[in-house]
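Table S5 (text form). Sequence records supplied for joint modeling of the two-component complex.
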Amino acid sequence: MRYAETGFNLEVDLTRGNIEKVASDPRDTELYLGGLGTNAKILWDRVPPEVDAFSPENLLIFGAGLLCGTPAVGCNRTIVSTISPQTKLLAFSMMGGFFAPELKYAGFDKVILRGKSSNLVYLWINNDTVEIRDASHLKGKGSLETAEAIKKELKQPKAQVAAIGMAGENRVLYASIEQGRSSASRGGIGAVMGDKGVKAIVVRGTKDINIAQPLEYMELCNEVMEYIQFRNENPIPGVMPILAGLGSPQEMKVHDEKWHTENFMWGNSRTRRRDFWNDEVAREWMETLDQSRTRLISCYNCPMTCGATISMPGLPTYMMKCFTKLTYTMGAFSNLDFGLRIAQKATEYGLDGFSAPQVMAFALELLENGILTDKDFPDMPTDNEGRFFYLLDKIVRREGIGDILANGTYWAAREIGNGAQDYAHNNIKKIEQLPLKLSMLNPIYFLMYCTGEKINITQIEGQFPQAPYPKKEHREKFCEDWIQVPDEKFKQYFLDWEPRGENSMPFYPTVDMCCDIVDWQEKMHYIDDALGQCSGLSAFPLKPPYHIHNYPKFISAGAGIDMDEDKLSKAAKRYRTLVRAINIRRGMRRKDEKPPEDHWKKRFPELEKELLDAYYKFKGWNNEGIPTKESLYDLGLDYVSKDFVERGILTDCEDSPDKDMPDEDVLAEKEKK
Amino acid sequence: MTGDKIKKTIKTIRIDVDKCNGCRACEMICSAFHATPKYSSNNPARSRIRIIREPLRDLYVPVYAGEYTVAECAGRDKYTIDGKEYDECSFCRASCPSRDEFKEPDSGLPLKCDMCEGEEEPLCVKWCMHDALILEEREEEVEELEEQEDLEIGLGSLADKYGLQTIMDALSRMSKKD
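The corresponding structure-token record, covering 851 residues in total, follows.
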């Protein structure tokens, strides 16, 4: 018997209409755990670098985490992995909600889509009965609309639906997959789903998930519950509200948006409005939220209320997840009322809430600066909000200028030319980032921005405080019950960290300390992503209930895999390296690993070089960021090493990079032709 | 019939639908607790509590499995409460032919809430951190009559199944043994 996991994947060939239930190898679970880990293994094995995002050969994998569907609190994430049309690298966007547990109860750990359907279809998984069904009547329908229509036609109110909207159907490169109160948004995975001709995946499951050591497992779950209660009653003092508690964060609960609105950038990630928040704004925004927010809601088996049901007057109801609350508002220099209204449409269309507003603000900046002209925007309304609604429609329909903007700021700027590239200024590895522009280089964040392969800062940061505490006694107090640290040395790093003077940024934490800190933060996210645990109760907040000391016990008792901290760390390192290997094979190199040029005003090129050199070495990568043969062998990834040598990425005698790798610009040119 | 007064503990779960966040932890933990061996598996489809949940209409109703019923209601009503329309079934605790709720998914056998006998409080209550489910216990004085009624209902069912004569025969055999 398999524990925690079902031991079966659902393989669907959309070209041939073939459906198979395939047993997975339990040894892979031991080596790569599940979720992201085993997704990465499948993508390495089956999707060579020659395969384009929109090739039928590309796979779109919906992987439920290893512990999803078990009583582990907040463990409900589906890890959707594919080749991104936006970055051309591995995309592993994730969603919470109810899909992953339902899939497990239906008897599957993953749904693996390959090929392309010639007409629009949806996949209906009802335990062991799986059908590909016609979806032509759902073409152009919103994501929530689609979910409701399908549940009705199947007479299955309890089915869970992951669907794309018009953006995915039209292959907008930042289209999301929406699942009611959650979405997998980053990297354009919705476009891959649309390209495959799949409107939705619908699942209903009524089978058991088994636990290896039930009593031990329940005790661990109870401890987590108690710790959540403790943390809810004892928020961390001295940090802003969203960092004080648990959750992902609980944006929809918070009225006070002073911190985001005054520290994050407005428009095309350009303008900081330091005195934006005042009593009048506070009152107006609170009124907007109180009138529209019908209920704070949660994902499966989680007490945190990070989402909300939103009913704006005159608009259909939808569910909002954390930060999309503000991205449209700030992109358009508008107010919360506008933000919640346009988010309703964007959710039905199925768009990434980080990228979409920035693309629209970017387009208007190009217009203001004469790079685009009025002719590019026929019949565009003159009012600010109206222009955003206009652009949203153009983009998801790929009409006129929208067809170019639908490719995101990086690709759009190249196509528009004429200096447009300077306006696509907030990207890492071709993908739009959180709108943050700061002053002093933060060495920890520098490394995370450079090397994070989820290419989204919120998906690698966490655990270690974002800034030093001014007073020593507060730092000591913080360390008192800091049980989550993997090693006591992290406490010392924090205790000695000062806002000013010798032990301050950018030279403190030292290069070596930064390597330790970044590695810890990243590791916890990678473990979350294999187990299906929401980082809102784990890697993201300070002092979370899940950490490196209890995770091995969860895996041992839950999945029946003998696990300890070292073995878990090594497994996480293994599939983390495999993720990198997939990207290296696709041409990613050191030159791609950099934050946006203007992310910090005060930069330190020598220190930055030293940081990256040291971190690469620490990770077992060579100076180009390529995992060395030695480190690959050590992780049991000999097959990666062999492939690298065969492709000339590593040479037989030494770990030197291939100097003949085609430059990405050349590749991009070739693609356009 | 004695008509004596006896003390009885009545357990009530207070359900505040306004506080429910729809996470379904109650369904999960119920099914885990009632697995054999305890907690060895979980499956909300086996749960004895179900959340009737329609987020877009803001309907969240936790309902506990009650009695099995052989036939569905002849007519089913709709209730409008605070502007939201509920199906009558949303509040009904019966394991009933009209729906899948409160039946073992494999066998179709009816399920019934037992308040997690032996635990301090029902586990759904324990796992509901939003206090949508609150346990209340109160003592009530009831006439023993009730037990008599239970006995008669039990005998009645046996009679339905085996025939009154068979039951009377069995009773007279049993009484001769003493």
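Note: The longest helix of chain A spans residues 511-531.
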